[in-house]
Write a structure and sequence with these properties.
- The strands form three sheets. Strands 4-3-2-1-5-6 form a six-stranded mixed β-sheet, sandwiched between helices. Strands 7, 8, 9, 10 and 16 form a five-stranded mixed β-sheet that branches. The chain has a five-stranded antiparallel β-sheet with strand order 12-11-13-14-15.
- The two termini are 31 Å apart.
- Strand 13 (368-376) and strand 14 (383-393) form a beta hairpin.
- The chain has two domains: 23-176, Creatine Amidinohydrolase, Chain A, domain 1; 181-411, Creatinase/methionine aminopeptidase superfamily (Creatine Amidinohydrolase).
- Helices cover 33% and strands 21% of the residues.
- By secondary structure, it is an alpha+beta fold.
- Helix 1 (23-39) packs across helix 7 and helix 8 (181-204) packs across helix 9 (211-225).
- The protein contains eleven helices and 16 strands.
Length: 414
């Protein structure tokens, strides 16, 4: 692992005496990369429904309760400015507070709330007609339209009105995979917030507390610290550790339990995926051995990270599924695993034996991703889970996740 100084996580405020996140530069970077991806494609425009892609291109956001209902969408035409259709009064808010967008390009929009308004109401017909007209006015009517994710009735309506639809998600993920200095600073700040929350977790991780109480504590502390979304907290303890259920319950923590947690939140949109494993009061030899193996696998993968290395080479240092109790790589997917981090939780690159051996991706400077390892214990029910977030630099990996994890941490030892 690298011994370089940690990347800066300077705080939540802009100040006049330090250079921190430059949000104007951040917006320019994201839009320019999306435009470059569009220009290199066959598409005349990108039509975006994925709410991370919408944020990347328009620099706007509304909460997940409305943002993920397939009602918000954005159009990025070749040679033109981004256009946005948003939920009701949010469009008016953008006209007032998002001056980088042309107010005339901020529209109220509604397509159906994932089918709650039936397609027969005609909202999709009208929306496609408007989009087609805008493309005709821009001289782009004959070019394919790149779409990232879409409801089937909307896709069918685009085809019925004569628009050729192609996949834009791959193109947008290509654009998003290289992070700017501002994105890296936001990712570092998000990780630093979790560093602090894990200190809180260790202090309360005692017999008698429940998994869901830990989840409540994490949510409270992160929102107090400035998180804009706590997407999920996995809290897994005792006999629930093996196999990994990827959730939390109301299970009581007991003396000698092994427990691991995954804290997934975002700061200014930029996410964490950050596992740590602890033993409660004491640890058995079996638990320590599992942790040692998980750490060795983690360190082996971090040592591989540098520009020019293929994701297949990274995945190869992890054990095959059959080596830690699974019948195949599909059954073990997500246990020895890497995934890009940014506005989305799972961006490029995805690193695993399931996909990387058949279609490797070359690592590039500026990629940010999480590496995850998992080792079941010989006792049959405990397990160790470790995750580190890394930035690819010309000199190798820089680690963002700094809560101690080289050795198994014993919470509140007896």
């Amino acid at each position: 692992m690298t011994s370089a100084a940690p990347l800066p996580a300077p705080g939540h405020m802009a100040v006049d005496y330090e250079q921190r996140v430059d949000f104007g530069r951040l917006r320019d970077h994201r839009l320019s990369r999306a435009r470059a991806s569009l220009a290199a494609s066959e598409c005349g425009a990108f039509l975006l429904f994925d709410f991370y892609n919408i944020r990347y291109v328009t620099q706007t956001w509304i909460g997940g309760a409305l943002g993920d209902k397939m009602t918000r969408y954005a159009l990025l035409p070749r040679g033109g400015e981004p256009m946005l259709w948003d939920f009701g009064s949010a469009a008016r808010h953008h006209r007032l507070y998002s001056p980088w967008l042309d107010p005339a390009n901020c529209h109220a929009g509604m397509l159906g709330m994932r089918g709650a308004i039936a397609p027969t109401a005609g909202l999709m017909v009208e929306a496609v007609r408007q989009i087609k007209g805008l493309l005709q006015d821009a001289g782009l009517a004959d070019a394919p339209v790149g779409v990232d994710i879409v409801e089937p009735p909307f896709l069918f309506e685009m085809q019925r009105q004569g628009l050729k639809v192609v996949d834009a998600q791959q193109l947008m993920l290509d654009a998003r995979q290289i992070k700017s200095r501002d994105e890296i600073m936001l990712l570092t700040q998000a990780a630093a917030m979790v560093d602090g929350v894990y200190q809180d977790v260790v202090e309360v991780l005692k017999p008698g507390i429940r998994e869901n109480e830990i989840v409540a504590l994490v949510n409270k502390r992160l929102y107090e610290m400035g998180s804009d979304q706590v997407e999920a907290v996995n809290a897994v303890s005792g006999e629930r550790c093996n196999p990994h259920p990827h959730n939390f319950s109301d299970r009581l923590i007991r003396p000698g339990d092994q427990a691991f947690f995954d804290i997934i939140h975002s700061y200014n949109g930029y996410r964490t995926c950050y596992y740590r494993t602890f033993s409660v009061g004491s640890a058995t030899a079996s638990q320590r051995d599992a942790y040692t193996k998980a750490r060795e696998w983690m360190d082996a993968s971090i040592s591989m990270i540098k520009p020019g290395v293929g994701t297949d080479q990274v995945a190869a240092v992890w054990p095959a599924a059959t080596e830690f109790g699974f019948e195949n790589e599909m059954a073990a997917f997500g246990l020895q695993f890497g995934h890009g981090l940014g506005l989305g939780l799972h961006e490029r690159p995805i690193i695993s034996r399931l996909n990387s051996m058949r279609e490797p991706i070359e690592l590039q400077a500026g990629m940010v991703f999480a590496l995850e390892t998992y080792c079941p214990a010989s006792d049959g029910f405990s397990a160790a889970r470790i995750e580190e977030e890394v930035v690819v630099t010309p000199d190798g990996a820089r680690v963002l996740t700094l809560f101690p994890a080289q050795d198994l941490v014993i919470a509140n030892p007896y």
